[in-house]
């Protein structure tokens, strides 16, 4: 278990050190760790997740692990088969095609529903993400690209104070986030990194002048272009292979 994973499970102590994280908080942290591992392909499609092994790794009983896996199943990230176990699902562009139009519409609402002004610290975090992206351009890495994309997603969705919107946006994001990684063999990682950097800079400029509604439209445009690139390259790969 990484240092980050350990911190998420144990939680950071409060200044007063009155009490540790609640059972619900520990469950949420466990869920986020396993979800993130799935969405960065650390747990690749088809991998079997063992309740017993996860419980031993995170030093919890199998009951909270089982609850987390059930939650992940409802979100389409795993499938639980009796007698076989829990299997990480394989994202498919065709079956998730309807998710993208919904993501487009929700993205446009981010800066409209209860917009939250950005602070200097918020902007500094995005500037740090841009620097990470610059480093990534010189040393491309699929998992780092996924982690960077995920961090930026949370920075953007934080502009809305509408909790239901953020929750739905998050669920749909994690349903589709693995598709880019799965398609990288037919995509151009350098092109994806450059496009992602462009999006971050555009969002940063909009945040710097306080135009949060523009942030939603920028996000919407880049989701649309990303999906179009995936469809185009996927179709070209099928044509080259002779598949329908």
Characterization of the model:
- The protein is mainly α.
- The protein folds into two domains: 3-88, Arc Repressor Mutant, subunit A (Orthogonal Bundle), CATH 1.10.10.10; 99-241, GntR ligand-binding domain-like (Four Helix Bundle (Hemerythrin (Met), subunit A), Up-down Bundle), CATH 1.20.120.
- Helix content is 67%, strand content 4%.
- The protein contains ten helices and three strands; from the N terminus they run ααβααββαααααα.
- Strand 2 and strand 3 (85-88) form a beta hairpin.
- The radius of gyration is 19 Å and the shape is globular.
- The N and C termini lie far apart (42 Å).
- Mean pLDDT is 88; it is low at 1-18.
Please write out the topology.
Elements lengths: L2 H8 L12 H17 L8 E2 L1 H8 L3 H13 L3 E4 L3 E4 L10 H11 L10 H19 L3 H16 L5 H21 L5 H20 L3 H30 L3
Antiparallel strand pairs: 1-3, 2-3
Helix pairs in contact: 1-2, 2-4, 3-4, 5-8, 5-10, 6-7, 6-9, 7-8, 7-9, 9-10
- How does the overall form come out from the CA principal axes? globular
CATH C-level of the largest domain: Mainly Alpha
Secondary structure: number of strands:
3
**Topology order in helix (H) and strand (E) letters:** HHEHHEEHHHHHH
Sheet with the most strands, sense and barrel status:
3 strands, antiparallel
> What is the number of independent domains?
2
Radius of gyration: 19 Å
CATH architecture of the largest domain: Up-down Bundle
**What strand order characterises the main sheet?**
1-3-2
Q: Which spans of ≥5 residues are poorly predicted at pLDDT below 50?
A: 1-18
- Spell out the CATH superfamily of the largest domain: GntR ligand-binding domain-like
- Spatial gap, N to C terminus: 42 Å
Average predicted local confidence, pLDDT = 88
Total number of helical segments? 10
